[in-house]
Amino acid sequence: MGKRSINADICFWRDPDLPGVEARFSSYNEEAFRKHVHAAYSVGLVKTGRTSFFLDGEMHDAEAGQVVLIEPNVVHACNPERDSCMTYRMFYVDETWFRSVGQEVFGSGAASPRLPRPVVDDSELYAHWRELHEAIRGNRHRLEKESLLVQGIADILVRYGELSGREQDSPGGEGAVEAIKQYLTSHLESKVNLDTLSDIAHVSRYHLLRLFHAKVGLPPHTYQNQLRVDLGKRLLATGTSISQVAQEAGFVDQSHFSRVFRQFTGATPRQYQRGASPSTVK
């Protein structure tokens, strides 16, 4: 009896907060693809197994923990090696995202990015794009997803891309960062987006992320989550129900609130509420 095909284990996500981006998770133990092209940039994360894939007339190998980078409209076919089960996360990112971030990184004269290395060993890059995948799957806030995407594209371009021009000096300073912090503080329940923060700071999205992290030590979405958790702690201390706290603090739902709350406090909202009182919470 032959091995059971698991090529049916496939999921897709198309997030309205990230137009032009499609994420997928797939598991294959036999050939599934003929040679084909995508109009978008492809960023793949090999989770398990190995693949020997065809790309533009050549064969390349990739295995678990590696990142696969494929330019738009390049003929390729990625299938698992014989007797191997390959699972992977994949992103298809519209060329406009790469072009716009490339211009933010390297200057307005930069051409469409090229990715001459189809397989890279970069655990940090792998972990970053995996986090973006989880953010899309978990329907996290728009600002977090946008920040992860822009930074992820920028990391690919700076480390492995070929563009003309050079990186701009980061403009802005304390005033821009303080304006962003004030905006985030006053919009805890809003679905803040990166373009809005870029307009406030008068810098590009890429330089906004660099500037904010350099001054604050956190990306904007993490800083806003910290503010939301702080508000959640105050509300929990008054006896407000966890579901109501999650809503008032601007989280997607109670599950999202509980997960983020634990990341920041090391305790669940219920554990915190049981031990908190208005006189002891800071």
UniProtKB/TrEMBL annotation:
Pfam families: AraC_binding, HTH_18. The keyword Transcription applies. Coiled coil: none annotated. PROSITE patterns: HTH_ARAC_FAMILY_1, HTH_ARAC_FAMILY_2. The keyword Protein transport does not apply. Keywords: Activator, DNA-binding, Transcription, Transcription regulation. Transmembrane segments: none annotated. One of its GO terms (molecular function) is DNA-binding transcription factor activity. Residues 178-275 form the HTH araC/xylS-type domain. This is Transcriptional regulator, AraC family.
